[in-house]
Amino acid sequence: MHEFVDTWYLASLGRNLIWARLRILDAGTAEVLDSDGNHLAYDSEDSARSALLDAEFVSYDGLDEDDALARGFSLQQVQPPQADSDEALVQRMVQTLGARA
Which residues neighbour 24 within 8 Å (Cβ) at sequence distance 6 or greater? Predict the structure, then answer.
């Protein structure tokens, strides 16, 4: 049985949030599912995290409300996408935020 540890990362681009899922695999390798549906393989969790940070993604779990507001949204507005399959998930990995008040 495969055990996965998933963490979510996001980047903001204008009024859009772009999500990426980092999955740590059994062997200690890592895979990132990006919003284009690509499964990007990495030799370690550290190299995958570095690639995400280089692409200006931040850990969703590491955000506080002030960080989120600085990026143009409230943590109360967003949560990582969910779906029954990766194919369906990809359709939800770009979220357009509503107009600012």
Answer: 4, 5, 6, 7, 30, 45
- Domain residue ranges of the chain, discontinuous segments joined by +: 5-96
H helix intervals, the chain? 45-54, 65-70, 86-90
Task: Please report the pLDDT score of residue 101 as a whole number.
Answer: 42
Amino acid at 44: S
* Neighbour-count burial for 71-86, b at 16+ CB within 10 Å, e otherwise: eebeeeebebbeeeee
In this structure, which amino acid lies at residue 98?
G
- State the DSSP H helix or E strand holding residue 90, giving kind and residue range, or none if neither: helix 86-90
In this prediction the pTM is 0.90
All residues at 6 or more sequence positions from 74 whose CB lies less than 8 Å from its CB, including other chains: 65, 68
Mean pLDDT by 10 residues, the chain (101 residues): 83 92 92 96 96 96 92 90 95 84 42
